[in-house]
Automatic annotation (TrEMBL):
It comes from Streptomyces xantholiticus. InterPro entries: YndJ-like (IPR025450). The keyword Transmembrane applies. This is YndJ family protein. Pfam families: YndJ. Signal peptide: none annotated. Keywords: Membrane, Transmembrane, Transmembrane helix. The chain crosses the membrane at residues 53-71, 83-106, 118-143, 150-171, 177-198, 210-231, 243-264. The keyword Transmembrane helix applies.
Length: 275
């Protein structure tokens, strides 16, 4: 399972995050994007080393890069006059990789941080790259492009759901289920607005196809996440972590995050070329 998880995390570190930063603010975040490989490459190498000092040291380098993103979130928040839903989602996207960075350091050092087992810490890393950074980013982009209450609901509920899931880690499975319910509702709202409003407004066939895949996959992967959370909370049969990594994790990484980032990059490029 962890070979697959490591590959998913590498996709997030090396492509999704820097590509997402270009979508957030290509000018202000350009210095961070240029230096990002200095943080992401050591982080990627740390994934494959045995747990210990060397792996932990490289993970610390990556964690420092995620703190730069959190610092950018603080800067944006200080400069924001009106905290609209889309901006809340973008701020969440910039902050959540730091949770992944902290979990990576602890897991690579072999330290059960806050009592969480090493496998759970290892899975926290991809979760906050994709259910954190990518999901909140796309929710913010969708809300910034589409008008209406459903888009605003998506931009607010994805951050709330993500943070509630994080808080649920420290409470119990029922609190985590509450977060999963909110996050699932928000992601399904993202999928619906993407399919109906964003995809429908695009004429480029490749962009439409990428948006369609991201929306369809998102419905399925969040249903899997919800079934797992219900099973954990109510002690009912549910997919194990290996199955979740191979379905929910891989689907979110490739079908949702990768396709979404590629689609929004095409949308941004075509908009800039038309100006």
């Amino acid at each position: 399972m962890f070979v697959l998880v490591n590959l998913i995390v590498m996709l997030g570190m090396l492509f999704v995050v820097p590509a997402g930063l270009h979508l957030v603010d290509p000018v202000r975040l350009a210095p961070v994007r240029r230096t990002w490989p200095l943080f992401a490459v050591p982080g990627a190498v740390a994934l494959w080393l045995p747990r210990g000092g060397a792996a932990a040291a490289l993970a610390v380098v990556y964690a420092l890069g995620t703190l730069l993103l959190a610092a950018e979130a603080a800067r944006r928040l200080a400069a924001t006059r009106s905290l609209v839903p889309a901006e809340i989602a973008v701020l969440t996207a910039l902050v959540t990789p730091s949770v992944a960075g902290l979990a990576l350091v602890a897991e690579r050092a072999g330290h059960e941080l806050f009592g969480f087992t090493l496998p759970i810490l290892a899975l926290t890393v991809p979760h906050f790259h994709f259910a954190g950074f990518a999901a909140a980013l796309v929710a913010g982009l969708v809300c910034g492009r589409a008008a209406g209450p459903l888009a605003r609901f998506a931009a607010l509920s994805v951050p709330v759901g993500t943070l509630t899931v994080l808080g649920g880690y420290f409470v119990d499975d029922w609190a985590e289920l509450a977060g999963a319910l909110v996050l699932t509702a928000g992601m399904w709202a993202v999928a619906l607005v993407t399919w109906h409003d964003i995809r429908g407004a695009e004429r480029d066939r490749s962009t439409r196809a990428l948006l369609a895949v991201s929306a369809i996959v998102l419905v399925a992967t969040m249903l899997l996440a919800l079934s797992w959370a219900v099973g954990e909370a109510a002690d009912l049969p549910h997919p194990d972590l290996t199955w979740m990594a191979a379905t929910h994790g891989l689907g979110n990484a490739l079908g949702f995050a990768l396709c979404s980032v590629l689609a929004w990059r095409r949308i941004k490029d075509m908009k800039e070329s038309a100006v």
